[in-house]
Amino acid sequence: MTVSRPLVLLLSLVSVLTLLGPMAPARAQAPKYGGVLVTHPLSATPSLSPHEESTVATTQQASPCFNNLVYYDPAKKQESVDTLIPELAEKWSWQDGHRNLVFFLRRDVRWHDGKPFTSQDVKYTFDMVRGAADAKAKLKVNPRKLWFENIDAIEAPDPYTVVFRLKRPQPSLLLMLASGYSPVYPAHVPLAEFKNRCVGTGPFKLKENKPGEYIEYVKNPDYFVKGRPYLDGIKFVVIRDRSTQIAAVQSGQLDVAGTGWNRTNAEDAKAGAPKLVLVEMDNNVNDNVLINFKKPPFNDRRVRQAINLALDRKAYLVGPRQGAATFGGALLPRPAGVWGLPAVEVARLAGMGDPAKQKAEARKLLAEAGFGPGNPLKFTLSTRALALYVDTASWMVDQLQQIGVEATLEQIETGVWHPKMTRLEYQVALNLTGIGIDDPDAQLFENYRCGSQRNFSGYCSEEIDRLMVEQSQTLDRVKRLALVNEIDRKLQADGARPILGWAKQHYVLWPHVKGWVVHENSIYNVSRRQDVWLDK
Amino acid sequence: MRVYVFKRLVIAGVTLLGMSMLIFVLMRLAPGNITDIVFESAGYVDEADRKRLEAELGIDKPVAVQYAHWLGEFVRGDLGKSYRYDLPAWEVIKPRLPVTLELAVLAIGFSVLLGVPAGVISATRRGRPLDYALRVLSLAGLSMPSFWLGMIVILLLVRSLGVIPSMTYVSPFENLGANLFQFLLPGLAVGYRSSALIMRITRSAMLEVLREDYIRTAWAKGQRETQVVWRHAFKNASLPVVTLIGIEFAFLIGGLIVTETVFNLPGVARYLVDAIQVRDYPIVQNLVMLIAVVVVLANLAVDLLYTWLDPRIKYGSA
Lengths: 536, 318
Description:
The complex is a heterodimer of chains A (536) and B (318). With 536 residues, chain A is of the alpha+beta class. Chain A has 15 helices and 19 strands. Helix content of chain A is 29%, strand content 21%. Chain B starts with a helix and ends in a 9-residue tail after the last helix.
């Protein structure tokens, strides 16, 4: 008996498919509509006006109300220029060698109060944020004015076109506009109203805001993205005590929890309720050491280098960070980050080598600077009076003691922490810095540029400032990365703001929560939640 | 009596005036003000903007002027505006008052209901196992901070039943059962410590009174135990207990701050801490003054109650 060749092939194919059948991925479950998702924010938000605030608590709680011109794709874990998606702008176009950015707006968008959205709203918002002389409103506090300082003018030639004219090319502008801190405000609603309520175009409308207690949203039935949101509402319940947060998620009162938690907290929660799903990932927040460049003896490079060398990064990882951190320079290390130094270079940074050798080198540097057993270096190590800070600062005191430095820990109340840092009223400090956008423009200008108000160490280098501008207007991404790495190397060599490590974030959620995506290179940007649904 | 009440009212007034000065000065001595916190935490320091906000809030004026302005408004019943929320202070405080009041009443209620009978029973059963058991319980109450006890209660509930009280406030008019579940546990957690103190004071006062001749006489006349203990002995032993309840009421606020935090109750005590952290002067000053007024009035009420409890105490022209 002979069997034809095509039949053999067919039979073989059927057999293979039969065998592979059970291993093939299950078809994605269709999202369900309805239900109210309950979660807890980092803290109560000072207002519902993201343009006036600097805490992730605000972007978490205000984002469901608003939209941006462009946004980061919530489905992609890593944010970059490649993951931008349209929101209020249907499309956009760079013109004149990246000096003009033109947005073409959607025509089917209405504010929550029924008024139509137009280009005037965009012009109003970003003239206000960039502090234009003829802006129709002025922000009381304008934390991200620096992001938009390169905008020369904003024009609205017709109701559905907006042109951003720039002083110099700046491809990163799109990334700034995609941030959770850059929603578009309605020009017809007084700015002061955003203190306690919000009128946006977003997937959820504000139902009730009880300041310091909870914020509740309901579905916006007129949302311009058809079929979204899936949820009937979202409720952010402010729970201050971490143990209570854990108990609340275990008892099912919270669907998602963990904002501001460490690994132990997340594991505790899961231990009490094993069905909880635990997620750990990078989040672009670093632990850094501020060494005051304006105060002797810290203006001596040898002293700064000694402090940097004494802090054994691997001990930091095991100790205060409980194994949940990665190492890097001034920008989030790859692969989670886009712009970080290569791993091989990171391994050579101060504090990454043999602890005994590095501490010996640190002692030698201190001796050269005039400090030793007879004349120990003494200073106050300041930190914020929060457990997350104090744990690491206490570890630093011990590390420094091993090279003969007598550091006294000073805990500063949150309310006066930033003023003291801004005014450089400290000697050495342990700080945490969250980077709003994984982009050199957002990180470098804010924290390292001469005179920047967030340059808490008082570091200043004309060369670095020049390179910062150069990288910002470099359109070729490979060349830009090379420039950024060059800046990073110089910053680390100068001990501009030694990075201990990049922490990971932890949270837990019940398996019935679907579509809740957290990005690995920013905690600030994707909290719209229009794709979240509950499988109940 | 009228003269006494008048004198006590004058003393109360002077006390409150002193309190107002202390509150005001202490708040101003704390480093930083709300403009520092608002601007510098945002990493944005524009002196012109800062001065504009200071002028808007009135904190650019001399301290004496600010003090006089605030006190005048407080006396007139105007609590000003919360800097943080940009809302009338009363609007922010009002919804939080019933929460704290319910918790305070429950806590004091529990402390009296548990502490007084336990103290009396302990005294009348002196040296017996029940006495020892009650004394151990009271010692435990004194040793355990209320927030720790609250946390343990929450953990036990979630571990054993998988439930905990609601994380958002449930009004008794909305759902009485859920409201009681939400308040009974924190009320007990706070009240337990006070009840331990009340139990100890009641016990020692009762022991002293039970040795008195008139008690012996009452026993000799064949009166029933409940009559001797509660009508003759307890009434005379209750003076220090009443004083203690008054003092405990003043201390209650400390216990409420942490308990409101643990049980996530949106009361004024927890809110006070939030307001201090951001230097929301109108809220802090007015809330602390309101608490001071309540404490002074509670003490005044206790003093006046003495005359009813012990008619031998006469207040008059002396």
